[in-house]
Amino acid sequence: MPVNTVNFSGIKLNTKKESPCSPKVDEDFRGLVIATPDGVDLAEPWQDAVGSDTARPVLPVCGTIQLSGDTTAKFLSLTNQILLVAVDTRTHVSYVSNLLQKGMTAQLAIRPTPEQMEDAKDRVDTFFFNANAFHYLEDLPAAPARYHVFALLGDIVSNLRTVEVVGKGTEKSSRKIAPGEVQFGKNARPSAVAADFRGVHIQPRVQGWPRDGGAVWIDGVAQLGIEDAAALGVTPVQKALVVTVSSGLAYRSWNPAGEQALFVDDQERQGAAIRGTFSVELSKAFSRSHGEGVYVMFSVGKFLSNIVFLPPLQATK
């Protein structure tokens, strides 16, 4: 099992080498794990950072990725394709960026042959990153807030960390509205989950991402315990919904509710659970990378959904 370290002193931020804050993992661990402080102060200086504007505050996010070689080979620019996501726990506005340094061009690996993929199965690859979230997430407001922070790499998702940002700051976040049709409550087509399920579950209506501009609907349900639903601070729970999509080095994350009017009965109580259903159309909000499929994930507060992969489809005649 992965174990987060708590030593954030003496690290060089915005690097991709093992450091004192790199989470330690067992030999048999496969996946992505991050470590962050529980809180950061906007006034705390941090001089030892690569490429950072010294006027920006610091929120260290250190990560360890350990994968089998054939999984590594799926990514043509692995350490640059890592997505860092921060969601404001009060406004439910999300901030996202990959770890490609500004102004740099990613060097893409050559796509491996099936024989090379087979030969790589027994290899274990380990990678690290030490990111300042305020550097990569350039629109992250320098103001007091609480964030849910996690990282994504294709269909691999990290643990979630909650970070309190304190100190003086006046920057305000703006709600990001993405185009596309959204349906909630009785108008949505929920995915089926068991009565005791707690979390977020999604499913696509299409088998892949169409090349000819067809609709891409994702149906889902957020089913939370009463206390967890109340902790979101919004009614209905779909107001806290965040979608994150990625394809190669392209990415986007937003709150589908935006400024749209939602109603109390868009959620319903079923026994000891609060249930909110949704359907979101993605094609007008996101353009996939050339030749790549699309990874889709939703979150509601601290709950992260399953990840759906939509391979590219051929154009219809």
What is the gist of this entry?
This protein is mainly beta and 317 residues long. The chain is 8% helix and 34% strand. The longest helix is centred in the middle third of the chain and has 6 residues, at 114-119.
SSE diagram, text form:
Layout: E1 31-35, E2 39-41, E3 60-68, H1 69-72, H2 78-81, E4 83-88, E5 94-98, H3 114-119, E6 124-132, H4 133-136, E7 145-153, E8 156-157, E9 161-166, E10 182-184, E11 199-204, E12 217-225, H5 226-231, E13 241-247, E14 250-254, E15 267-270, E16 273-281, E17 294-300, E18 303-304, E19 308-310
Parallel strand pairs: 2-9
Antiparallel strand pairs: 1-3, 3-6, 4-5, 4-7, 7-8, 7-9, 10-16, 11-12, 12-16, 13-14, 13-17, 15-16, 17-18, 17-19
DSSP helix fraction:
under 10%
> Which geometry do the CA atoms define?
globular
Q: Would you identify the regions where 5 or more consecutive residues have pLDDT less than 50?
A: 1-5
Q: What is the CATH topology classification name of the largest domain?
A: Immunoglobulin-like
**What structural class do the secondary elements suggest?**
mainly beta
Q: Gyration radius, to the nearest Å?
A: 20 Å
Please identify, by name, the CATH architecture of the largest domain: Sandwich
Please count the helical segments.
5
Task: Give the CA-CA distance, first to last residue.
Answer: 49 Å
| Helix-strand string | EEEHHEEHEHEEEEEEHEEEEEEE
